[in-house]
Amino acid sequence: MPLEPLSQKEIEDRLAELPGWSQDGDRIARSYRLGSHFAATAMVVHIAQVQDELDHHSDLTLGYNTVALTVNTHSVGGAVTERDFELARRVEELAPGHGAS
Fold first, then answer.
1. What is the per-residue pLDDT for 29?
2. Are 49 and 72 within 8 A, CB to CB?
3. Within the chain, where are the H helices?
4. Could you report the per-residue pLDDT of 2-18, keeping only the tens digit for each?
5. What single DSSP character describes residue 70?
6. Residues in contact with 52: Cβ distance below 8 Å, sequence separation at least 6, in sequence order
7. Helix axis angle, 37-54 relative to 82-94, nearest 10°?
8. DSSP sequence for 43-69
9. Model confidence over 24-65: pLDDT tens digits?
10. Which residues contact 45 (CB under 8 A, 6 or more apart)?
11. CA gyration radius, the chain
């Protein structure tokens, strides 16, 4: 089944289920604060592993003690799809294990 862009309502409904995530133009986005640079780096590596498992990659930014993601689906013209929310949910699942808030 091919990926389809989500409607604005669908995006808003899914974002309501993911506290901390928001729409940023044609993407969904979230930033996390961690206890140290090492913890943030470990989280980036963990996210990269999940992205490879899903074969879906976000823009991922590592700061001193922060990690930021922006996600959309390039294969449908940069729109937001269910695949983006799948990645967001997986990142939400792993974040507490890294002490992210």
1. 98
2. no
3. 8-16, 37-54, 82-94
4. 799 999 999 999 999 99
5. E
6. none
7. 140
8. HHHHHHHHHHHHT---EEEE-SSEEEE
9. 999 999 999 999 999 999 999 999 999 999 999 999 999 999
10. none
11. 13
Contact 63, 40 (CB under 8 A): yes
Q: Are 91 and 18 in contact (CB under 8 A)?
A: no
Cα–Cα distance, 61 to 68 (Å, whole number): 5
- 69: β partners: 30, 60
57's tokens? 């990659």
Residue 1 pLDDT: 59
State the CB neighbour count (10 A cutoff) for residue 69.
22
Residue where the block lists tokens 């890294």: 98
- In the numeric block, the tokens 């001193």 are attached to 64
Pairwise CA distance, residues 74 & 68, whole Å: 18
